[in-house]
């Protein structure tokens, strides 16, 4: 009964909010922008869930970023009500919303473009409702919420890496490192560029999705979120980020080794298992567990050092 009462109360509040928005020029423009958000949401949640099933950490990281960005707004909701956008901010915000709404139908195929348009709409709604003061008073929300609009938050890092680094740079390093460890345990593995050759089972290619970059980015973002959550200093957050990226890369080596061994000795089924969604989820689970305890040890040590000071 309490749940039903809460749902009815929430429905009444939503209807009242809609009624108020419809009555004002600003409210109608905001609602128009939110309609675009509703159109983008099914694609966003579908891609997020599908990628999570395949072993992606996006769902967890984006959920954490959203909660950490929205909770401060909820805690300071009374203060937020006092913010009012200036006339100039409101006009600029409305132009951003309307321009984004007009552009949206032309980018129905590209998800990244829809995400960018939705980000502009959210920025326009924020600017026209609370003004530029919002971005100054709530820097954490301003940082974290944009990370949630796209299901692949590491896409910018990928593009930057590929632009700056030689082709197959990380793939070759991962293949060489995995081959070296395989040789240490007595396996006759040979590295040829990004390929690992096993005399008994042909060659395994270390492709882009297997080079550990995505996991390094995911662990780096995890370090950022943990640092913000525990209110660490910028230097301490940077350390958590660097350690996270390092752990992600190091843990990719045994994964490549396992797939090379599966391909050489255990058959196609085992290779597909470790290369597929189940194998990815197992590695992600182990990786997150190891990094969590590593990060907690770092945080505890930082707290103890602060107490001594």
From TrEMBL:
Provide the primary localization: membrane
Keywords attached to this entry: Cell membrane, Hydrolase, Membrane, Protease, Transmembrane, Transmembrane helix
GO BP term, example = proteolysis
Listed under GO cellular component are: plasma membrane
Report the superkingdom from the record. Answer: Bacteria
Q: Name one GO molecular function term.
A: peptidase activity
Keyword Cytoplasm in the entry? The reply is no
Signal peptide coordinates:
none
Membrane topology, record value: Multi-pass membrane protein
Locations listed in the record: Cell membrane
For this protein, the record's NCBIfam families field holds: cyanoexo_CrtC, exo_archaeo
Q: What is this protein called?
A: Cyanoexosortase C
Organism of derivation: Leptothoe spongobia TAU-MAC 1115
């Amino acid at each position: 009964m309490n749940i039903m009462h809460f749902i009815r109360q929430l429905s009444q509040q939503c209807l009242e909010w809609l009624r108020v928005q419809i009555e004002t020029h600003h409210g109608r423009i905001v609602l128009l922008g939110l309609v675009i958000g509703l159109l983008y949401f099914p694609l966003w949640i579908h891609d997020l869930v599908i990628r999570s099933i395949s072993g992606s950490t996006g769902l967890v990281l984006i959920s954490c970023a959203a909660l950490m960005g929205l909770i401060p707004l909820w805690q300071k909701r009374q203060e937020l009500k006092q913010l009012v956008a200036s006339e100039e901010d409101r006009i600029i915000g409305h132009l951003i919303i309307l321009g984004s709404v007009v552009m949206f139908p032309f980018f129905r195929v590209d998800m990244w473009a829809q995400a960018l348009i939705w980000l502009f709409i959210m920025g326009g709604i924020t600017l026209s409702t609370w003004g530029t003061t919002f971005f100054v008073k709530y820097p954490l929300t301003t940082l974290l919420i944009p990370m949630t609009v796209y299901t692949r938050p590491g896409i910018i890092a990928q593009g930057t890496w590929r632009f700056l680094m030689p082709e197959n740079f990380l793939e070759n390093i991962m293949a060489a490192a995995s081959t070296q460890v395989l040789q240490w345990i007595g396996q006759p593995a040979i590295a040829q560029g990004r390929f690992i050759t096993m005399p008994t089972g042909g060659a395994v290619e270390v492709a882009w999705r297997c080079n550990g970059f995505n996991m390094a980015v995911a662990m780096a973002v995890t370090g950022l979120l943990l640092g913000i959550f525990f209110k660490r200093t910028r230097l301490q957050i940077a350390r958590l980020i660097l350690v996270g990226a390092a752990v992600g890369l190091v843990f990719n080596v045994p994964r490549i080794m396992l797939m090379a061994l599966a391909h050489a000795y255990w058959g196609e089924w085992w290779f597909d298992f470790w290369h597929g969604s189940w194998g990815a989820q197992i590695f992600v689970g182990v990786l997150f567990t190891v990094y969590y305890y590593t990060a907690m040890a770092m945080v505890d040590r930082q707290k103890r050092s602060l107490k001594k000071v």
